[in-house]
Design brief:
With about 575 residues, the protein is of the alpha/beta class. Helix 1 packs antiparallel against helix 2 and helix 1 packs antiparallel against helix 6. A seven-stranded mixed β-sheet has the order 7-6-5-8-9-11-10, sandwiched between helices. Strands 1-2-3-4 form a four-stranded antiparallel β-sheet, with helices on one face. The protein is about 55% helix and about 15% strand. The protein has 20 helices and eleven strands.
Length: about 575
């Protein structure tokens, strides 16, 4: 098709420029959101959120550079750009669903073959082929990231050529104008992602992003259809994309839920992306349990199972309360499920302050919040599990970043008889600061002289260096006596905690002096607790080589990530 050679008027050029620059800005915003979507989903699938995000961003940036080089192969910039936008919308809208589908199939095949060959119910095929298929499927986000990066990278060179063609001459500031629109659009896209889409179901976020991509493509096609080959076919493709958008917007989340069921060993009964994390609740029936067993996963990691969470929370709560002289005012940091709070409220406490960042998580477990309305059946199940602890008049719930809230409590002159820190493992740099010497120093200042503080401290078996670092960091924060203890939790394996006092005797010595438990427990006895302080011979022999986790150092995060990466490799082999 021959392109018109007539020189456009100045008014017409301004119209062209406005459209092209606006389209470029919209596409840049969409491209960045696609990048975040894939990074976010890769973090869920691969488990290591931080590594997945960095790897995905790096992959897409490199791919965009390659795409920019490949754009020179297309002689007809108008046609190439028009088709490119429809392809990006299709891939961007459907890639998450495609990845989830392949992963679901890869995890379903062993069970399908077990059924075909009529194997016993407790036998699941896990041979080399199945393991490799599952391993490869989990890296599909990077494959789609590479593909999307290649396509997005072609946009700027093509639209720069289109703009120059429209003007009919060489444009001295062409690259600067296009890149300016690209950077501003990307910034707007980042703001939309953080403020709106991060809390959306991931398929809805992908669909709405693709819609803007489709609209930009239609605007370009409307203005330059005379330059585009097969324009009518391309229009039909855009209409088909709009239909697909409607289906994904309405059904995508339910499709994803069904596919996600395969990633969990039990039935998924609730799935929600909050502003800070992805929550999944599963259930399974057991002949030995009157109620269904409920498991909570945050970002794909198991946080508790109702079958044995009592062991974990008893080991977290009883030692510091037993080691504290008084129990009037107790502080819980984290523990948004209200289960530690439930056990603390069994003691003669006057007030328990609980600080957690995620308002949606708190609402799910019983904290009144007009903004969030969890499903009634789920809410009832979880509040029954924590015995409506958040509705207790002695409970005082604070929604906020504990790192900042602790400083506010210090400014208010607050003191607590017992402090319990029930945070997720330090699997993200944002959590790393909550395990730092700086934070523990503030905790020490909040703790009454005759009180005790306990911290959940990950696995002493699977993440030994991280476990030891937490204990050493608490000691560096100025606590007089710092001890660590462990217990086996069936759902997690060997698990550990750190306990500390500021004056007088150590926590274990105080527990040893107790004649009887002031509050009866199904799991805890004096001998059971004291035995938990015993570790194998030479367990602490490497303690001098372990570093303190100073604020901003990332030491603990590195220990933790390295430990679980090694564990993952051992599991694969």
């Amino acid at each position: 098709m021959s392109h018109s050679k007539q020189s456009p008027s100045k008014h017409s050029l301004l119209g062209h420029d406005f459209l092209l620059i606006t389209v470029m800005a919209i596409l840049a915003g969409c491209g960045l959101i696609y990048e975040y979507l894939l990074s976010h989903y890769a973090g869920r699938v691969l488990g290591s959120v931080e590594s997945a995000i960095y790897a995905m961003i790096g992959t897409m940036i490199v791919a965009m550079g390659i795409g920019a080089f490949l754009a020179r192969w297309f002689k007809d910039a108008f046609t190439a750009f028009a088709w490119l936008e429809s392809l990006i919308a299709l891939v961007g809208m459907g890639c998450i669903l495609a990845i989830a589908s392949v992963i679901a199939v890869s995890y379903s095949l062993p069970h399908i073959f077990s059924d075909i060959f009529n194997l016993p119910a407790d036998v699941v095929l896990n041979g080399y082929v199945f393991q490799k298929l599952q391993e490869w499927s989990r890296f599909l986000p990077y494959v789609f990231g590479l593909l999307l990066g290649l396509l997005i990278g072609m946009e700027i060179p093509l639209i720069a050529r289109i703009r120059q063609h429209v003007y009919g001459r060489f444009l001295e500031n062409n690259a600067g104008t296009i890149y300016g629109a690209d950077y501003i659009g990307a910034g707007i896209g980042a703001a939309i992602w953080v403020s709106i889409m991060l809390a959306m179901p991931i398929m809805q976020a992908a669909a709405w992003t693709a819609l803007f991509n489709i609209i930009a493509g239609l605007a370009f096609l409307w203005r330059y259809h005379s330059y585009v080959r097969y324009a009518k076919l391309l229009l039909v493709c855009h209409i088909a994309l709009l239909v697909l958008f409607g289906f994904i917007l309405m059904l995508g989340s339910s499709w994803m839920k069904d596919l996600s069921n395969v990633l969990y060993k039990d039935k998924v009964i609730y799935s929600e992306a909050t502003k800070y994390q992805h929550l999944v609740l599963t259930e399974r029936l057991s002949r030995n349990q009157p109620d269904p067993i409920t498991d909570l996963y945050l970002n794909g990691r198991l946080q508790f199972s109702s079958i044995d969470e009592q062991i974990y929370h008893s080991m977290l709560v009883y030692p510091p309360l037993l080691a504290s002289n008084r129990h009037d005012n107790v502080l819980i940091i984290g523990g948004g499920d209200g289960l530690a709070l439930r056990d603390v409220l069994k003691w003669p406490v006057k007030e328990v302050t609980l600080i957690d960042l995620d308002a949606q998580l708190l609402s799910l477990f019983g904290h009144d919040d007009d903004e969030f309305n969890p499903p009634a059946a789920i809410h009832e199940r979880l509040t029954k599990l924590n015995m409506h602890s958040m509705a207790d008049p002695r409970s005082h719930i604070k929604v906020g970043d504990a790192f900042l809230e602790v400083e506010r409590l210090l400014d208010e002159g607050k003191r607590f008889d017992t402090i319990i820190i029930d945070l997720p493992d330090p699997n993200h740099p944002d959590l790393n600061k909550m395990y730092s010497d700086y934070f523990y120093n503030h905790i020490r200042q909040l703790l009454a002289a005759d009180g005790a503080m306990a911290v959940q401290s990950t696995s002493p078996y699977h993440a030994k260096k991280a476990f030891l670092s937490i204990g050493k960091t608490v000691k560096a924060a100025g606590f007089k006596h710092v001890e660590q203890y462990q217990q086996n939790i069936p759902s997690f394996g060997q698990w550990g905690w750190t306990i500390a006092t500021t004056t007088g005797q150590s926590a274990s010595a105080r527990i040893s002096d107790i004649t009887s438990l002031p509050v009866a427990s199904r799991w805890i006895s004096k001998k059971y607790l004291l035995a938990a302080f015993v570790f194998p011979n030479h367990y602490f022999e490497q303690i001098n080589d372990i570093e303190v986790n100073q604020l901003g150092s990332g030491t603990l995060y590195d220990y933790y990530r390295s430990a679980w990466q090694i564990e993952s490799e051992l599991y694969k082999n």
